[in-house]
Amino acid sequence: MNELEKKLQQLDHQSYAKLKQIAGTYRADDGVELAIDYVQGDPFAAPSRVRVRIPMQTSRLRREDFSTPSRTISLKHLFTKACSKTAHKQKTITGTGKSGMIMIDAPGPEVIDRASVSFLSDSIEFRLSTGIPAAGRKILGKKAAELLTKQLPETALKAVTAITRADIEKTIQLQDDQDEGRRQIETLQGCAFIANGSVLPRASGISSAPMKNAVPFQSPSSQVVELELPHRGKVRGMLIKKGVTLIAGGGYHGKSTLLQALERGVYNHEAEDGRELVWTDESAVKIRAEDRRSVWNVDISAFINTLPGKKQTTNFSTEDASGSTSQAANMAEAMQAGSRLFLIDEDTSATNFMIRDARMQRLVSPDKEPITPFTDRIRPLYETHGISSILVLGGSGDYFEPADEVIVMDEYVPKDRTKEAKAIAASLPAERSRPADHEFPKNRDRSIPASSIQNRWHPKKKVQAKGKNTLLIGKGAVDLHDVEQLVSPSQSEALAQMIVWCVQNSRNDESLSSVIDRLYETVQQSGLESVSPFFPKHPGNTALPRKYELYAAFNRLPFYK
Ligand code: ADP
Ligand code: MG
Fold first, then answer.
1. Which residues neighbour 544 within 8 Å (Cβ) at sequence distance 6 or greater?
2. Can you tell me the ipTM of this complex?
3. How high is the mean pLDDT of the chain?
4. Domain ATPase of the ABC class N-terminal, which positions (predicted)?
5. How far is the C-alpha of 370 from the C-alpha of 42, rounded, in Å?
6. How far is the CA of 413 from the centre of ligand 1 (A)?
7. Is 210 touching ligand 1 by the criterion CB < 6 Å?
8. pLDDT tens digits for 251-287?
9. Residue 341: beta bridge partners?
10. Same domain, yes or no, for 41 and 78?
11. Count of domains observed in the chain
C-alpha cells in the first residue's frame, strides 16, 4: 500500500488520464489486499473497479458454513449487504463527479447467487466500485490515497467484523430450512407453498419492503400441510398441488398480490421479508401478453392456427406480435425451456387467449377464429406434459370445469370453493363447444444465430445491460420489460455477459439449449464470475438469472433472420 501512496503523491494535481498507471495489486501489513482492475477515464465516467481481499481469519466464518452451494449463496448475500451498509457509512471524500464514492452491488430481498463477494480459500474478496477523487480533471493525490489505501480496505474490513457468529448461523439456518421446505413440497406433489403468517403485499408498487399492517396469509383448512424444517421445526401453510389451480375472487381482494408472491417464490427471500417461507417450483414462468415483442420461428399452432391470409403458425415469426400471439409464443417458449408451472394473471393476459364463451362461439364460427382459448388447452397441458397452471381470473367461470382446485380470495384470505364451483359448473353448463385436441409444440430447438449476431455486432460495441429492462447488443436492443421474473439489473448485466459467452463458446450447429446447459454447468463449477469477459479481474456487477430468463433474452434478440 505504501507503494500506491507514493505513486498517488507523485500524481497529485496531474491530469486524470495518468491515473491509469495505478492499476495493479497492492498489499497492506495486515494481510489486506487491494486490486485496482479498472481505472475510470475521467471523474464523471463509470467508476473504477477494485477488489479488496480480507483475510478469512478476520471473519467468524467456519469451514462447515460452506457445506452446501446454497449456503454459500446466502452468505454472499449477507456479506454483500453488510458491505453495502459500511460503504454508505464511510464519510465521503468530496471532489468532482463521482469522487469519493464507494459502492458494492447491493442485493434486493431475493437471495440470488452474485459476483459481488467471493469466498476464496484464505480470504474474502469484495468487488467494489469507487470514484477516484479529482478537482476538475486533476488528480487529488492525497484524497485518492486516503480513499484507496484506507477507506476501501476499512469498508470491507468493517463489514466482515460487523457480522457476528449469530448472523452467520441465522443465515445458514434459514437457507437450510428453505432447501428442506422445497424438497418436502416436491415430495407432497406440490408446486407451491405459502406459510401461514407470510406477508405477501409490498409497502408500495415501487418498494420491495413488506407492507406494514398487512393481513397475514392464512391457508384454507382443506389445503393446510405441515412441514418439518430442520431449524424452525413445524411450519404450517397452504400447499398448491400440481394440476390446475384457479384463483378467483372480487376485485382488490388480493389475487394478483398472491400470484406475484408466487412468481417471486422461485427465489429464496431473506429473513423478515415476509416471503421467506413462500416457495414456488423453481421452474415456474409467468406467462403474459407482451404485444409488440418480436417472435422468431415458434410453433404456436396448439393455441393459434392459421392467421388471416393463411399464415401458418407452426413457424410463427413476427417483429410485432399481438396480445394473443405474444402470449402463445411466451407459453410455447417456456415449454421449450422446460418449465413445469405456468403462472397467469388476468391483468396481464390477452382476453381472447384466455376465454371464449358460448355466445361468441355462435357469433364467430370456429373456422374464422384462429385462437383456441386456453380453457381448452390447460388440461391436456397438465395431463400430457405435466405442466401445472396457477391462474388468476375473476371475470369468467369457464375455468370451473378444467380446474382441480378453485380458491376464492376474500378480503386477502383464501377460501377453498372447489365444491361450489364444480356444482355451479354442473348446474349452469358453459355450453361451449370444445375444439379437437392439438399436439403441443415439439421440443424443436434452435441454434444460436452466431453469424448474424457477429455480422451486426460491431466488434467494438459490447453487449451490455442498460438498467434491468434493456440489453444493448451492437445496434439492437432487447426489451426485457415484460420478463417479470427478472428482479435485478445485476441479473440483466449477467444476461449480457452470458449471451456473449454463448455466442463465443457455441460449437458449430450446436443447439441453443445445449449451449445454455453448458453455460450453467460452467457457472456451477467455476462460479458466475467465470463467464465474465473480465474474469479473474472484477467481473462486473452481476447476479445469476435463471435459465428461463436467459432463454427469454435469446428469444427476444432482434437478430434471428
Ligand atoms: P386483485 O388482483 O384481487 O384485484 P390486488 O392483489 O391487486 O387485488 O390487491 C389489491 C390491493 O390490496 C393492493 O393495493 C395490495 O397491496 C393490497 N393487498 C393485497 N394483499 C393484502 C394483504 N394481505 N393485506 C393488506 N393489503 C393487501
Ligand atoms: Mg389483479
1. 112, 113, 114, 491, 494, 523, 528
2. 0.99
3. 94
4. 1-160
5. 57
6. 10
7. no
8. 999 999 999 999 999 999 999 999 999 999 999 999 9
9. 284, 388
10. yes
11. 3
